């Protein structure tokens, strides 16, 4: 049986023991996704309610809101615990991404509740970008829908390797095993077409009734597997970012006085140690790490995910957006790449479009060279296309405005991902994942530029922007 951490039993523990335990518990980030009205918000509300993460005043407010806007009759509408916007409550849908935290004695969790409507696909992609696992909900009455396929594809493109397929609303089909087996079979067959191998677990639940969510195993007599919460507590998620080559995107030049010059940011992968020889990209200038400074004091080393400020033994020219890597590592700056793209704007993407982009902390621009193909959401086949419309997914070749040190997305999700920004409105219009770096022999308007000319142009744009 799972024991939950509550305010009541917290007061009975030694605070230092509790804090130590909290620090050493593993953290799992996951999202709920799927088609509209499949019960994503209700499931998260059930998890929060049953793990005793709701305060008395929240529960009272939930009861009042359920009477005023609820769609569950006399029962609590648990979706209101995450659907906080007035429009969400009135329409009974999720619009924005809602993040919630809860913990048990086995693990800590951060949940992203993402919308199911097609028009809010951009919000789903935003929520999935930081997650280790996805819970894909399917309405037992409807089976696999187009948005189910789209969310499955986006989750795998964004590097999520663990997928729990929660076949929800089993109470409305009287917990029939044959319905569960049919949907499970259809999804397993469909998953073979996904672009990467995914660890899949199928589980029957009723989020509204709380069946097979947090309770004892065996609530559905023919199902012999784990409950959803037990699966979340025990599933093994392997994070490779510590084993990856060191990448430190510079976010801020920290200069509080004349005696201190540091470079601040979050270590995106690998390990950084005092004394380590590093080089700044794209310049290639080398130096040694003198200090690793944090709010809590200096460190001997830092691991991926830590926010740090580093001090070098000698001052070199480093700016916001530069990338620090190990001196022995080879990362050749490139000007073109092939990327998978999720298009999020109403205006179609066409070759020749120019956008501002952000890669890690680097702001620059790129041009769409050509659209390689678009992916058919229904069967995942690739077909030629002259444009990518709203919520389309495809592959395009792009040309960067300057030489950039980048990784392919599979090797590093921070330096291999691209945020695409409209130059006029400054709105995010797409998300890109670098799949392949291309030859730098780029022909622009029939002119073949030498490498020194390209570097000179990048230098001018960097120090004399116009």
Strand composition percent: 25-35%
Low-confidence stretches: 85-95, 442-447
Name the CATH superfamily assignment of the largest domain.
Answer: P-loop containing nucleotide triphosphate hydrolases
Helix content: 10-25%
Shape category: globular
- Please report the distance between the alpha carbons of the first and last residues: 63 Å
Number of domains: 3
CATH topology of the largest domain: Rossmann fold
Average pLDDT level: 85
Work out the number of β strands.
25
Query: How many alpha or pi helices?
Result: 10
CATH class of the largest domain: Alpha Beta
Please state the structural category: alpha+beta
Give the biggest sheet.
Answer: 8 strands, antiparallel
- Could you tell me the radius of gyration in angstroms? 25 Å
- Please name the CATH architecture of the largest domain: 3-Layer(aba) Sandwich
């Amino acid at each position: 049986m799972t024991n939950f951490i509550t305010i009541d039993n917290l007061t009975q523990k030694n605070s230092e023991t509790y804090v130590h335990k909290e620090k050493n518990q593993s953290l799992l980030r996951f999202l709920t996704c799927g088609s509209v009205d499949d019960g994503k918000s209700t499931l998260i509300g059930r998890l929060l309610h049953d793990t005793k993460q709701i305060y008395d005043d929240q529960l009272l407010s939930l009861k009042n809101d359920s009477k005023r806007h609820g769609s569950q009759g006399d029962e609590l509408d648990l979706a209101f615990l995450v659907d906080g916007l007035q429009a969400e409550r009135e329409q009974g849908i999720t619009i924005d991404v809602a993040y919630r935290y809860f913990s048990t004695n086995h693990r800590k969790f951060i949940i992203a509740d993402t919308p199911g409507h097609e028009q809010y696909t951009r919000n789903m992609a935003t929520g999935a970008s930081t997650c280790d696992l996805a819970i894909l909900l399917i309405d037992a009455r409807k089976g696999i829908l187009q948005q189910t396929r789209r969310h499955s594809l986006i989750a795998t493109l964004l590097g999520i390797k663990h997928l729990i397929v929660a076949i929800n609303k089993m109470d409305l089909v009287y917990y029939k095993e044959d319905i569960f087996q049919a949907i499970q079979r259809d999804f397993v067959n469909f998953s073979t077409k996904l672009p990467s191998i995914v660890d899949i677990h199928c589980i029957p639940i009723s989020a509204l009734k709380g069946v097979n969510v947090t309770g004892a195993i065996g609530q559905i007599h023919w199902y012999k597997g784990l409950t959803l919460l037990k699966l979340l507590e025990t599933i093994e998620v392997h994070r490779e970012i510590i084993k990856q080559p060191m990448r430190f995107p510079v976010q801020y030049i920290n200069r509080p006085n004349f005696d201190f010059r540091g470079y601040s940011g979050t270590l995106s992968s690998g390990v950084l140690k005092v004394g380590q020889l590093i080089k700044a990209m794209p310049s290639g200038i080398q130096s040694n790490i003198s200090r690793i400074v944090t709010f809590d004091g200096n460190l001997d080393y830092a691991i991926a995910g830590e926010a740090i400020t580093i001090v070098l033994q000698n001052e070199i020219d480093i700016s916001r957006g530069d990338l620090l890597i190990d001196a022995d590592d080879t990362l050749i700056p490139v000007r073109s790449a092939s990327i998978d793209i999720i298009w999020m704007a109403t205006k179609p993407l066409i070759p020749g479009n120019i956008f501002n982009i952000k890669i890690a902390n680097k702001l620059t621009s790129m041009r769409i060279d050509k659209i390689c193909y678009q992916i058919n959401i229904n069967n995942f086949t690739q077909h030629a296309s002259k444009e990518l419309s709203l919520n389309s997914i495809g592959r395009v070749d792009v040309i960067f405005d300057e030489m950039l040190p980048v990784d392919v997305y599979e090797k590093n999700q921070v330096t291999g991902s691209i945020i695409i920004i409209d130059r006029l409105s400054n709105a995010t219009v797409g998300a890109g994942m670098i799949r392949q770096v291309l030859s730098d022999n780029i022909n622009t308007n029939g002119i073949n530029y030498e490498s020194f000319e390209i570097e000179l142009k990048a230098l001018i744009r960097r120090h004399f922007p116009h």
